[in-house]
């Protein structure tokens, strides 16, 4: 049965996401309001009866001086990827999307479906680091290989899609490797028991020292941003402006009052850590974090993570997602500290399909890639 792709309303888009149980927060309509520098469109896949069976948020970025666009679906689209078993089933999903985007003057498409290909448990990773078995996740035998995800990658490559870059570190776009804590079927006590001894000790230490974690309001965003800017200077990354977080909070909260939460960890009234938590149905994310450079011995970062994870569990989420990691397992690599911190939760490293490109106009697509590289 053939499918068609058309523009859908925000309500239609949200209703489909609700029917699926979850989707990336980058694939809900409100995210288009956050990314103001892009033009956004909600699109839906419709069957012969007009029923929406897939959805995606498309962000369009114009190439300078030319009215042609890169069509980008971050962590999307939301489709029945498990039904992709051969070239024909892949074309059934993607051909109508490409045709629609081409009609919108797209010169190329970039998408990164949340399709899992491999998983590694904390135990497997810690053993590999201890024994020096591997310095990359890619070289480490996974605990789970998803054949459906592997099949999608194989078919996309054969269909002319360009696979993700294998360069070290964080590439532009969304992370291919993330760290997640499964919550479904587990009690709060189970989750705490799953933490390593250091994490449990740090959570108790923060509590005993009087570190308090509370939910903030929009009025607390400037304090979060000041701490976030300090973190950016310390850790050598470029911070986003305060207005970005104000827009994010307003847009996501107006779509669903439980979508966005700001957390504040204070000691004797002093802000020591602050984070942003986002939830779409059964999936909750640790999205942004900031921490002070002093009083770190009070372990505010562990306390605030435990509060976010507990709230995700209470809200009925099946997954708490600590977002991106690189695939390094080398203690000498500056990115290793990120996965080392997250390993303490007893979760798992997850490899997604990654972001794939399809040039529609090869010349314009290459010119755009050169333009981004220069920026």
UniProtKB/TrEMBL annotation:
List, alphabetically, the PROSITE patterns matched: FEMABX
Q: Gene for this protein?
A: femY
Family per UniProt?
Belongs to the FemABX family.
Q: Which UniProt keywords apply?
A: Acyltransferase, Cell shape, Cell wall biogenesis/degradation, Peptidoglycan synthesis, Transferase
Name the species this protein comes from.
Sporichthya brevicatena
Q: Does the keyword Transferase apply?
A: yes
Q: What is this protein called?
A: Peptidoglycan bridge formation glycyltransferase FemY
Keyword Manganese appears in the UniProt entry? no
The uppermost taxa in this organism's lineage are: Bacteria, Bacillati, Actinomycetota, Actinomycetes, Sporichthyales
Task: Name the PANTHER family on file.
Answer: LIPID II:GLYCINE GLYCYLTRANSFERASE
